[in-house]
Amino acid sequence: MTRSRLRARKLLLLGGDAPLLLAGLAGFFLLLSASYVFWLPDVSELRRKNPLETSFMRIKERQAAAQGKKLGRTIIWRSWDGISDNLKHAVLVAEDDGFYRHKGVDWESTRKALETDWKQKRFAKGGSTITQQLARNLYLSPSKNPLRKIKELLIARQLEKELGKRRILEIYLNVAEWGKGIYGAEAAARAYFGKSAADLGPEEAAALAAALPSPRRYSPVKGTKFMERRKSSIVARMRASGYLPEEADEEEMSESLAVLTSSDTSVEVSSAPAGTP
Length: 277
Known about the structure:
Helices cover 54% and strands 1% of the residues. It is built from 11 helices and 2 strands, in the order ααβαααααβαααα.
């Protein structure tokens, strides 16, 4: 048998095995994807442990390091009672007004987000609850990969099951990014207003909540038209939801939004156990 015939025969045999090879590869990647999606972190430790580092923090710092920069990190943990009710309410109406009604996932918002994404042929709308945002912040990445989204949903359900609403919101307010290297309500309150998170007034709280969708793009204290409209909308919704009186205290609502200019990028953490002031 000539060499050309032998080569042709080998190719024919390989061609016959190609479907099996493709099926094997598909099965391997399916198994890999399933392993990624269904491997879930143990969130029960968050009942007592205050997370002082998140996946998002590490990603941002690696990105800065890749550019030859060092990104500082300021995070100062505060318990539930150490955070102003104004900020809790502002964040709820701005980010997830159905927080106390859903079980981690707002399926109606998710459906609307998917419809918008489908129409625009891109990931244009989030639709994530506070619980989903926390799951993504703590354990995942900003990637809009569909597999990541599925895992986010599963972790969100676990958080709801293990922690409950109050603890979820407490952790969220302590690890949310509010600017480059600024994490949590206390660090943000000090950086932008020179006060504790416990002392934030309605407008200051609304300003912080208004910046949450894109904290590196929008500053709580730079009065752009977009931020002013968003802040006013949040205050109005706080009032409509019964979180503020119809006529808010004039002195409190007119507090100046003074910026505390500081170059301190050190990490300050609380060693107090979860749930303590």
